[in-house]
Structure formats: C-alpha cells, structure tokens
C-alpha cells in the first residue's frame, strides 16, 4: 500500500490517559486498504471501567453535523465496526478496506475515560483515473495568422480525484496552456490542457505532461507522459511513469492507465501513417 503516513507520538502531559500512537496515512490510492492506529495508555493507577474508544469520519471541509461514527469499543464489550468495509485490528486500530474517493475526509480518534482525548488527521484517497494521455499533432494551418507550421500539444486525464492540475513542459520549461477541469461525476474530475507551439522551435524537444493534485503532496503523486517531438510530426519516444520523490516508496501504475496511454500512442502513430 502506498502511503505517506503521519506518525505522531504524543507525550503524556497529565497523569491520566494519553495517546501513545496515532497514525492516519494522508494519501491512499483508491482500491488500497488504509490502516489507522490509535493506541492509548492509561496512567498506572487508572481504571478502565468507564473507558470507551471511538473512530469518527467527517468529510473534507465538512461540519460537525456531518461527522459519522466508524468504530466503537466500550470497556468490557467487544469492539464494533459501524461501517461494513472496516476490519477491526488490535489496540483499537481499524483497517479501511478497498477505499474509494468518497472515503477522503478527516479521521478522528476519541478516547474517553476520566479525561477525554481527541486526535485527528486528514486522509485523501486519490485515483489517477484514465492516466495521462498526451497528443502532439502537427498542423499546417494553425490558429494564428502566419503561415508557419505549428504543433498542437494536448493532454488529458479522466475520472481522477481529488481536484487535478495538468502542466505541460517543453524541455523542462513550463509553457502557458489553456486549461479546463470538469467535475465529471460525483467527486471525479476530467482535466484538459493544451498549447499551440511553433513547429521550428519545438523540433527535437521533449514534451512532458504531468498530473498533480491540489489536496495532496503534488510531487509525490504525479503521473507523467513524455514524447520527443522530432520536427516531422512523428514522435520517436513515449513513456509513462510515476514520479515519486520518495525513493523507498514505489507503486505500480494500474494497467488501465498504461494501456490507455499506449493506445493513444498507437492511435497517434496510425493517424500519422495515414497522412
Ligand atoms: C475545502 O476548502 C478549501 C478552502 O476553502 C478549498 O480550497 C477546497 O477546495 C475545499 N475542498 C473540498 C474537497 O471541498
Ligand atoms: C473495491 O471497491 C470497488 C468500488 O469502489 C468495487 O468495484 C470493487 O469490486 C471492490 N474490490 C474488492 C476487492 O472488493
Ligand atoms: C504566460 O502568460 C503570462 C501572463 O499571461 C505572461 O506574463 C508570461 O510571459 C507567459 N509565459 C510564457 C512562457 O509565454
Ligand atoms: C460534482 O458534481 C456532482 C453532480 O454530478 C455533485 O453532486 C457534486 O457536488 C459536485 N462536486 C463538486 C466538488 O463540485
Ligand atoms: C484547447 O482547450 C480549450 C479548453 O479546453 C478548448 O476549447 C480548445 O478547443 C482546445 N484547443 C485545441 C486546439 O485543442
Ligand atoms: C511534499 O514532498 C516533498 C518531497 O518529499 C517535501 O519536500 C515537501 O515538504 C512536501 N510538502 C508537503 C506540503 O507535505
Ligand atoms: C522522426 O521520426 C520518424 C519516425 O520515427 C523518422 O522516420 C524520421 O526520420 C525522424 N526524423 C528526424 C529528423 O529525426
């Protein structure tokens, strides 16, 4: 499971109840499981007869009225999962199974005995949807007045979450693009980005399109499509990869994302053969 966890070890400030470990991953890929931990410690002379532990979920930017309970353990009784897709783990941990983008939100652990302690953290479920598709098309009659040949670079990604942002670079230089993001269905977005460049200036360049998300650390979760534009309208190389700045963290591109990019490359290649 890919995750960027926040591990907080809180130091006891009072004689009473304290949280030893609180861990909520802040980015989880849709379809993965997410392990949430909340382990408390009682002071040596404290009885747990009145203890209870609860997990709560609130939507991102949601109000307290929208808070819903996920888990409960009351002293002397068995723990109860209040949602169907939760596996109960030891020490009041819960495992959210097969998360979807709807599971994004703030997860709060409440431990109550004589004192009450609440800790919470935001968790974002992301999905790369269709994966990034990059098209580089040469046009003899561009939108501007001059006769020069132009290259239309367009990039898209569909059914992604959270809110996406596409950027196009030419040999590493960011270019100004025309962008459009559509809320395509409940919580999923489609993003489109394009730019028209001069054919001469672009020949031999490496054109890259990157997907990033607004709500999660963008550099860790960017999908990339790259093509070398060789100046004759044909691209000689195409790769899709996941950029991860965490050397130890690796996750696979889903096959759907890969194949849709491969298809776009094949379709692009075929369309040029027809010219
Ligand atoms: C939450 O609120 C912030 C600030 O108002 C906003 O930028 C963000 O888009 C909101 N997120 C969602 C999921 O509504
Ligand atoms: C995971 O959830 C999705 C819907 O969000 C569902 O289509 C899929 O079958 C589930 N996978 C498993 C292994 O339960
Ligand atoms: C991009 O647009 C901004 C404002 O429209 C302009 O100041 C800037 O020079 C443009 N950059 C490039 C590389 O064209
Ligand atoms: C996206 O659109 C759906 C309806 O298609 C709507 O229910 C939802 O609130 C919208 N979400 C955002 C963030 O605008
Ligand atoms: C570029 O994107 C804009 C907004 O999505 C769209 O209206 C326009 O037709 C696109 N241009 C090209 C050449 O694809
Ligand atoms: C995002 O990740 C980079 C590299 O791992 C890190 O330097 C940066 O502080 C992170 N930003 C946030 C907002 O977590
Ligand atoms: C551009 O790529 C095409 C197809 O790979 C090749 O036939 C052509 O010779 C290349 N042109 C240059 C200038 O490299």
Query: How would you describe the oligomerization state of the chains in this entry?
Result: single chain
- The averaged pLDDT comes out at 81
The largest sheet is:
6 strands, mixed
Instruction: Write the element-wise H/E pattern from the N-terminal end onward.
Output: EEEEEEEEEEEEEEEEEHEEEH
Number of DSSP-assigned strands: 20
Uncertain segments are: 1-14, 238-270
CATH class value of the largest domain: Mainly Beta
Number of domains: 2
Structural class: mainly beta
Q: Helical element count?
A: 2
Give the tags.
five-stranded antiparallel β-sheet, 275 residues, Immunoglobulin-like, six-stranded mixed β-sheet, disordered N terminus, 2 helices, binds 2-acetamido-2-deoxy-beta-D-glucopyranose, 20 strands, mainly beta
SSE blueprint:
Layout: E1 5-8, E2 18-25, E3 27-29, E4 34-41, E5 52-58, E6 68-74, E7 80-81, E8 86-88, E9 94-96, E10 105-112, E11 116-126, E12 133-139, E13 150-160, E14 164-170, E15 173-174, E16 178-185, E17 188-198, H1 199-202, E18 205-213, E19 222-229, E20 235-243, H2 255-273
The structure holds 2-acetamido-2-deoxy-beta-D-glucopyranose (7 copies).
Residues 31, 98, 100 line the site of one 2-acetamido-2-deoxy-beta-D-glucopyranose.
